Every structure is written in structure tokens, then in C-alpha cells.
Amino acid sequence: MSAIDSIKRSAVLLALGLAAGPAFAQTIAITGGNVALGDGSEPIQGGTVIIRDGRIVAAGRDLAVPAGAQQVDAAGRWVTPGIVAGFSRVGLVEVDAVNATNDTSAGNSPFSAAIDVAPAINPRAAGVAVSRTGGVTRAVVAPETARSIFAGQGAIIDLGADMEPITRARAFQYVELGEAGADEAGGSRASAHVLFRNALREARDLGRTTGISGGGTASREPRASDQRDLPLEEVPEGRLLAAGAQRSEDVLLTRFDAVALVPVLQGRQRLLVHAERASDILQVLALKREFPNLRLVLVGATEGWTVAERIRAAAVPVIANALNDLPSSFEQLAATQSNVARMRSAGVDVSLGLINNEESRQIRLSTQYAGNLVALQKVPGAAGVAWGEALRMITSGPAEALGLGAELGSLKAGRRADVVIWDGDPLENGSAPVMVMIDGVQQPLQNHQTKLRDRYRNVSEGALPKAYER
């Protein structure tokens, strides 16, 4: 356990009134529940989950409870991994229209790709606690574009009740293509695509001047070493910045933006690209011919089902919006709620996120959208997915797409103990969490909404609102 993890566990345990000392060696056994591993398999009735030191030790049926373990009776309940929001802007916004509370984009900044959202994440934002109460324990947080197709570097966060939310900073670079990208690039898709390629070439050239590009060329097959998930801190940024100072004046990116894109060319940082139209998706896939080390993730992909075989062949994962059932723009004319299931049937690795859909506050709806996909199996002519697969799309699926599958998203041994106990089927709208754990630490289930509910639930007639009482 890292020092930060230890501090977080102590702070939360103390806030909950629990003893912090023994927690570092604490063993917890959750017994008797319907245990869903989050790996696509169906629930295990009467299952047990063993947690030690904030990690999953084992999960399954007929497991022996370790001596001295704290036992949690989950009989009649459902036990799942914490929900992982595959796309969000939670923690960056309080009120969209109030600029002082909205850190999603920087319309007046000279920087784009270099922007890192991690310092702007507010773990006390109202949307964080509301989402945690809904069973969301981790979230992919992306910036929003402004004046460029490059929005900047997104983060993976936890939604714990503490002040250390960052699981992985600078986890990916986020790019807008399609209609939004065309607008940011000067008014056309053609401009957006040439701007995209130019930026990658500038970053590649910068890397080559220092001998650490790793970006490859169209003539070289990517090496296995190019595809490692290395901490971004291993990139020699100082050398890159020094080299950037000597660049030609015939460049469009600032020095910091070019440096920020070098890890993308090295394959050390994923590149999330928002594209909805089929033709835009194919243009994104074609980038790998010139830049073979790119670790692409498609975001949105409303028309993905029409080119699913091409996406599968490129081995590019997709984070899709499960609710796009009708065209809301000209780039979504082929919209259908069967999109996700059809891509999955074609062998595409699909997970779910809220793209352009209240992604700052309503990521708790992930379970509802996953449940919709299960229900589609019963709709004539529609395509849905099995229950276990739907849960995977909001747990281990997003974690794997972002390179954190060995750490997050399932109840497999060794994963972080993000565990939720539900009072019913978590993919049914009427169900709610009764316990949420992040890194093995029980989290509070109160938020601004629940406090208002409790405050005014039993106010007697004629009583002044609580706000007027001292």
C-alpha cells in the first residue's frame, strides 16, 4: 500500500468514526450475496468476497472465511465491483453556466494538448458525492475542447470521501473530431484531420531530435516494448522541453503542447478520440498506418455498428453512449440503441460512458443504461446484451480500455477493493447501494440531496424552513 493510500484510508476511517490503526491489516469477508465479478460472467448465488489490506483476495462460492475477519452479511443483497464511469467530467463542474465553477475547458488559454485536468479536480464537488451514493467508485474524467481539437490530458479518479482523488493523472489525451472538431479546426472536417496529423508529426519530430520518439514510422512494426503501460513520469520531459526551444518557427503547436503529445506517439499514453460518424471513425483508424504505436480508444461511435468489422480488425476499444437511439445530429444519422450490442457481436471491445449526456453530474445513470441493454434482448428486432456483459461494460470494461484492468473494475484477486453492496439487482432502476467501499474503506452515503431530503422530510405545518433557524 502506498503512503497516499494509507493516508486516505486513515482519513476516511476517522471521518466514519472507525479505528484507523487495524485497517491496514484488516480482513473483511462479505458473505451470502449474489456476487457478480464484473468480468462478463453471471452472478454467483451465495458467494463470498474476501478483502485484505484494501485488495481483493478472492471472490466466489464456498470460500473459507479467514479467522478474525470482519464479516458483512450480504444475504439477499447483490455484491459487485464499484461502477467505473467510462467517460465523465465529474469533479470539474458545479454549475455549467457559471464560469468560475466550470473547469472543463480553457477558451482563452494558449495551450491545448498540454492541459492536465488533474489539478482542477474538486473531490468536494456535489456531483462526486451524488455519484458515489449511486455506486460509482471510479471515473474517467476528460477535458473539453476550446479553440483546438486537442482538449488536453484526462485523469482516472476515485470518488472517495477524501482530498486525494487522483488514481492516475495524465492517463490519456483527448481529441474531438466530427462536427465539434471541424468547428474547432476552422470549419471543416478536412481541416480537422490535417490539423490532427500535423500535430502528431510535430510531436514525432520533436521526439526524434532527442532520440526518444518511439513513435515509429509507417515502415516499422511496433515493438512489444512500445506498448508498455509505463508511468508518464518516465518520459524525459526536461530533454523534450529543451529540444522544443530549438524548434523551427514553422510549427503550429506550442512547445508544451508538442511535448505533451510525445508520450502519445510512444504508446505510453492513450489517445481518446471522439468520433460519431462512420467515415470519421475510419479516418481515426487510418492514423495507425502512419503512427503504428498509437493506443487509440474511440469515444462515442454512434455509427460504429456500420463499420464494426473494421474497428474489431484494428483492435481499438470503444467507449459508447448506450442511450443514442435516434439521430441528434447529422453525424448520427445511423443511430440505434442496438449499436452497442451489434458492435459487441462483431467482436469489438465496448464499454459505456456518458458522452454529451450530463457527464458532469449524472454518471450514476450508468447502471440504468447498462440495464437498458439487457432489456433490449426482449425487444423484437433490437439487439441487447446479457446481464453479465452489461455489468462488465460499466466495471472492468472501461478500466481495461484505459489500461487499468489489472487494478480496477472487477472482483478478481489482486484488484483494488472497490465493492458495492446493493439492495437489489444493480441494473434495475429501483435498486440502490447500501454499502460502498473504495480501496476497502467504507464510504459515506450522504450527499447534498440526501441531506435536503432528511432536513425537510418531516417539517411540521407552519414551521420555518431550517435555513432560518439558528
From TrEMBL:
User: Which InterPro entries does this chain map to?
Assistant: Amidohydro-rel, Metal-dep_hydrolase_composite, Metal_Hydrolase, Metallo-dep_Hydrolase
Q: Basic and acidic residues bias: where?
A: 220-229
Start and end residues of each Amidohydrolase-related domain = 310-440
- Give the matching Pfam families: Amidohydro_1
- Segment forming the signal sequence: 1-25
Q: What keywords is this UniProt entry annotated with?
A: Hydrolase, Signal
Which Gene3D superfamilies does this entry report, sorted A to Z?
Metal-dependent hydrolases, Urease, subunit C, domain 1
* Residue ranges the record marks as coiled coil: none
User: Where in this protein does the record put region Disordered?
Assistant: 207-229
- SUPFAM superfamilies cross-referenced by the UniProt entry: Composite domain of metallo-dependent hydrolases, Metallo-dependent hydrolases
GO function terms (MF aspect): hydrolase activity, acting on carbon-nitrogen (but not peptide) bonds
State the PANTHER family in the record: ALPHA-D-RIBOSE 1-METHYLPHOSPHONATE 5-TRIPHOSPHATE DIPHOSPHATASE
Listed name of the protein = Amidohydrolase
* Record organism: Allosphingosinicella deserti
